[in-house]
């Protein structure tokens, strides 16, 4: 009866698996443990292909790729980001070659993994002598990065840097280069959140300072609704709310008004908390995981980006009633 009357259901097709590929692991290195995210690894090219094979076999339609360059390859503008030989672009090409259209390749279109200062854009010193991210100079680099990712074979680019006008500039650049069918998943309502903590370990981030000048203030919701409206007007094919669980109210409001699919990113800190409590025996890890993902869907998410994607898909398949 419960199964029949459930108002929402999770399906592996709802899930997007974020993955990290590290240049220093080479083609065939062993995956490297990320201490603050048990069960999540930095991958070599070969181990990336393996985990994607598993995702496909479980019915997960999409992966979201993040590149981890060697620290000596980082520079002030993050130039590895649009280099066809950069770690992320090589990973995209390898996966597209292996899987064709059987797996959607979504890519992080942001400079923070590639800059030596760890910010999502290039820096400028303003009249008062403060160092800040230069919004408009950064847009040109995002355009180059998105086109290089499309060239490498990405199906979806996802600008996550929260620069004003990023969706419009990327849409225009993709269209000019002939990639009219490459979609944009816009990180529209992305908050300056402490829940991103473990992610910074995952990508070996060199961030100094914070991202409060370009990410949303956790106190605000109207601002996020405006960001969604702007991104849709600029050509976003999908929008995202991030993090997920602390922002379910934002997600619900966005889902109410958005004319395009709405994704939610269950971020590194949310994952780490459930893992930590689960591994300590303080909560039931599997049940908590499924309840978290179900709640995100109930609040209005059409897709969920989650480091739990493989585990959750496995459980969903195991729980399917068999004749
Ligand atoms: C920026 C980016 C971040 C995350 C995804 N894309 C980090 C940030 O904005 O500081 C965080 C994801 C997570 O915490 O799981 N490229």
From TrEMBL:
It catalyses: 2 5-aminolevulinate = porphobilinogen + 2 H2O + H(+). The keyword Transferase does not apply. Pathway: Porphyrin-containing compound metabolism; protoporphyrin-IX biosynthesis; coproporphyrinogen-III from 5-aminolevulinate: step 1/4. Mg(2+) binds at residue 227. Homooctamer. PANTHER family: DELTA-AMINOLEVULINIC ACID DEHYDRATASE. This is Delta-aminolevulinic acid dehydratase. It comes from Corynebacterium genitalium ATCC 33030.
């Amino acid at each position: 009866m419960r199964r029949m009357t459930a108002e929402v259901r999770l399906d592996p097709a709802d899930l997007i698996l974020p993955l990290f590929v590290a240049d220093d692991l080479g083609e065939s290195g062993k995956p490297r443990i990320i201490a603050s995210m048990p069960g999540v690894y930095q991958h070599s090219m070969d181990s990336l292909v393996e985990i994607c094979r598993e995702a496909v076999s479980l019915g997960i339609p999409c992966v979201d790729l993040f590149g981890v360059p060697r620290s000596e390859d980082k520079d002030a503008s993050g130039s590895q980001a649009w280099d066809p030989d950069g770690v992320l672009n090589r990973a995209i090409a390898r996966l597209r070659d292996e899987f064709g259209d059987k797996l959607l390749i979504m890519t992080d279109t942001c400079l923070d993994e590639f800059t030596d200062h760890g910010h999502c854009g290039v820096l400028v010193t303003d009249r008062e002598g403060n160092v800040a991210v230069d919004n408009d100079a950064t847009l040109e680099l995002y355009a180059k990065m998105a086109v290089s990712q499309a060239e490498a074979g990405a199906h979806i680019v996802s600008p996550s840097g929260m620069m004003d006008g990023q969706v419009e500039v990327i849409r225009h650049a993709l269209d000019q280069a002939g990639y009219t069918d490459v979609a944009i998943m816009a990180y529209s309502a992305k908050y300056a959140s402490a829940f991103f903590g473990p992610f910074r370990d995952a990508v070996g981030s060199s961030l100094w300072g914070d991202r409060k000048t370009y990410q949303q203030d956790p106190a605000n919701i109207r601002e996020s609704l405006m960001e969604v409206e702007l991104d849709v007007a600029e050509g976003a094919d999908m929008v995202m709310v991030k993090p997920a669980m602390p922002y379910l109210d934002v997600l619900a409001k966005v889902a109410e008004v958005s004319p395009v699919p709405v994704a939610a990113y269950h971020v590194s800190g949310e994952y780490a908390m459930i893992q930590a409590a689960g591994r300590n025996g303080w909560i039931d890890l599997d049940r908590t995981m499924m309840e978290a993902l179900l709640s995100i869907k109930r609040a209005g998410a059409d897709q969920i980006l989650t480091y739990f994607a493989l585990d959750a898909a496995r459980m969903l398949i195991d729980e399917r009633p068999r004749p």
